[in-house]
Structure prediction request, 80 residues.
Amino acid sequence: MTHSYTKGVALRSQPKPQMYFERPLQYYLNLGFQNGFVLDGFEECAFPPDHPQTSTLGWGGKFSEIPPVLVGRFRKIQVS
Prediction:
């Protein structure tokens, strides 16, 4: 819930760390709502339990009940 940022490495061979920004989901949703958007679609995607794990850092089916991806669709409200 605390806003923070840090540098980190996503790939072992990357030349420089990149920035990671931590914000609660409500931060991003409210930013859209305050600017005239509505959330009209939402998906939580997870790997099936039998999905192979491709590396030691891979998500695979090991966490099939935890979605690594959340997708939302915002649409701008037409004000008449």
